[in-house]
Write a structure and sequence with these properties.
By secondary structure, this protein is of the alpha+beta class. Helix content is 46%, strand content 12%. It contains 14 helices and 10 strands. The site of glutamine has 11 residues, from loops. Belongs to the glutaminase family.
Length: 306
């Protein structure tokens, strides 16, 4: 396994087109695009790393996997009254479907869906309390208490968050929100700004690769059925309008973030985190996707077979 990921990292270093770093969140535009990291965590506790696997990056939309898990834990299946379970086929920050579909976002991984999930989790509490709960959960599954929010990124998102504010206000206009829009947005911007490295992220995803149980601690995080369903959503919706392409090339449930990270789950086999900040035109990590494609080709881990 170490040879496989060392080889992938070496090949990535040779790529001339590493994609473009996100610039609509100014703080993310400062990140150097020539960085690459990959970590593969196995349910038996082994972890394999290549590249700058200790460098922290902004997990952005990957946080939506953790907030979805929390929301399901708090409110169970009733969350599906507020958020759908279908791929959107539209960009992550699109507003168009909301008008035709009574303010109900297609899925929990597009921005509108994740903002609705933030509202669901808050249950009348302040953003600070909700964020403490989200962080506590991420630290628990990553088995690492040092994980924190990057306040600079959160502020940067807030200052340039007109599109997300539009989505939130538009949904609120249908009477769906239970908390003030500004508080929901504050929660959303901050959970997107959690900073992690690939080692922490791969470890955090292990419960999804291991039937809902964190193999490092032995704690059941969620039921096996719920883990299966979250993986299904990641496969269908985790890369927005690039989800079909990701399934075609990589063949794993995966969730991308505009910070250049991807969390991919090979059920029963591994949790994989990859980071390379340069993005493709859809907003998914260019080299991250390529690295995962190489990995599934070499390991036969695609859920669709060799
Ligand atoms: N694709 C992403 O990672 C988007 C998340 C980012 N925080 C946003 O709201 O735009």
């Amino acid at each position: 396994m170490q040879n496989i990921i060392d080889d992938i990292a070496a090949q990535m270093a040779l790529m001339s087109d590493k994609g473009k770093v996100a610039s609509y969140i100014p703080q993310l535009a400062c990140v150097k695009s020539d960085q690459f990291a990959m970590s593969i965590a196995l349910p038996n506790g082994e972890i394999y790393n290549a590249g700058c696997a200790q460098t922290l990056f902004s997990i952005q939309s990957i946080s939506k996997v953790f907030t979805l898990t929390l929301a399901l834990g708090k409110l169970g299946e009733s969350i599906w009254n507020r958020v759908g379970r279908e791929p959107s086929g539209d960009p992550f920050n699109s507003i168009v479907q909301l008008e035709h579909e009574q303010g109900k976002p297609r899925n929990p991984f597009i921005n509108a869906g994740a903002i609705a999930i933030a509202d669901i989790i808050m249950q009348g509490h302040q953003p600070k309390e909700t964020l403490a709960e989200i962080l506590q959960f991420v630290r628990f599954v990553a088995n690492d208490d040092s994980i924190a929010i990057d306040e600079k990124v959160a502020r940067s998102e807030h200052e340039t968050g007109d599109r997300n504010a539009s989505l939130a206000h538009f949904m609120a206009s249908f009477g769906h929100f239970q908390n003030p829009v500004s508080a929901v947005l504050g929660t959303y911007f901050h959970h997107c700004s959690i900073a992690m490295n690939t080692m922490q992220l791969a470890t955090a995803g292990l419960y999804l690769a291991n039937n809902g149980i964190n193999p490092l601690t032995g704690y059941p995080v969620i039921s096996a059925k719920r883990a299966k369903r979250i993986n299904a959503l990641m496969l269908m919706c985790g890369h927005y309008d690039g989800s079909g392409e990701f399934a075609f090339r990589v063949g794993l449930p995966g969730k991308s973030g505009v910070g250049g990270g991807i969390l991919a789950i090979a059920p029963g086999k591994a949790s994989i985190a990859v980071w390379s900040p340069g993005l493709d035109t859809i907003g998914n990590s260019k080299l991250g996707t390529l690295a995962l494609e190489m990995l599934t080709q070499q390991t036969g881990w695609s859920v669709f077979g060799d």
